Amino acid sequence: MPLFLKPVFQERIWGGTALKAFNYHIPYENTGECWAISAHPNGTNIIENGKHKGKTLEAVWDEDKSLFGVSGDAKFPLLTKILDANDKLSVQVHPDDTYAQKYEGEYGKTECWYILDAKEDAEIIYGVHAKDQEELDEMIDHQQFDALFNRVKVKPGDFFYVPAGTVHAIGEGILILETQQSSDTTYRIYDYDRTDKAGNKRDLHLEQSKSVINLSTNSPNTTPKHEVIQGQNYTQFVSNSFFTVERWVMNGKLTYEKPNTYCLVSIVDGNGEISINNDVYTLEKGTHFILTATDQAIIFNGEMTMIISYV
């Protein structure tokens, strides 16, 4: 039986109300993040069905790893979010596993973005214009940010792989689905001198940022692979040791062979159904669930777009 998950919503200074488009009853007028598939302690989902109904995904992962076809004491590796950038996010960087485990006690944060929607001329920051560490440090110290940051125009359907160490920021008017390592460590470099409701600026982490920025990552660097399978449009955006992320654009029926013992599934548009072991479940835009190790004879049917990820 799949695990259907109740989203967790996070209030953010840059958030808005665009997540209502996913049939969510959002709790804040500046809801920035939907943690859609998460076992992270800062926002773990509640399971909505089956024998584990009412438990957190974090607890079920810890107590019943056979459900996922894994063993050992590793933490749940992935986190799926939908982000509403009603305003621009801070310019930031995330550490890799080595640095994060040493200084933060958790995974590093390699991530990727699928652009669900974007206003005309929307842009992200991706990478920096600095030839070496000395120039990078000097430009940060002197706040030469207009010259430092590399800007890239985006449109719906674009995909960006953002390895740990990449300076990045989501711009205003962008809605994305983010697949990332299960980490909540962010180092801010610049936040446009914004203040919160109490008039306080958010913390910056300049020394940590200087330590983890990878100067070799300055341009989006994936080549999606497209094919038609059983009449359905399939795209593999990225596949590496951190995650594989795929998109299925469905118009009909698909007999799905799981590529991993468990897979994370998000319906980002349309609606349909899934049959698993002859049990049928309704799917609609905004539904998120995990196909477990026990789920077999899987058939998707409908007109919908799905993002599927796994390790």
TrEMBL record:
Keyword Transferase: no
Residue intervals of the Phosphomannose isomerase type I catalytic domain: 4-102
Keywords assigned by UniProt, alphabetized: Isomerase, Metal-binding, Zinc
GO biological process: carbohydrate metabolic process
Binding positions (Zn(2+)): 94, 111, 168
Coiled-coil parts of chain: none
The reaction(s) this protein catalyses: D-mannose 6-phosphate = D-fructose 6-phosphate
Mannose-6-phosphate isomerase cupin domain residues: 234-311
Class of this enzyme: isomerase
Source taxon at top rank: Bacteria
Cofactor mode of binding and number, as noted: Binds 1 zinc ion per subunit.
Required cofactor names: Zn(2+)
Cross-referenced InterPro entries: Carb_Metab_Reg_Kinase/Isom, Man6P_Isoase-1, Man6P_isomerase_Firm_short, MPI_cupin_dom, PMI_typeI_cat, RmlC-like_jellyroll, RmlC_Cupin_sf
Active-site residues annotated for this sequence: 188
Pfam families: MPI_cupin_dom, PMI_typeI_cat
A single MF term (Gene Ontology): mannose-6-phosphate isomerase activity
E.C. no: 5.3.1.8
PANTHER family with a match to the protein in the record: FRUCTOKINASE (PTHR42742:SF3), TRANSCRIPTIONAL REPRESSOR MPRA (PTHR42742)
Name the record gives this protein: Mannose-6-phosphate isomerase
Gene name as annotated: pmi
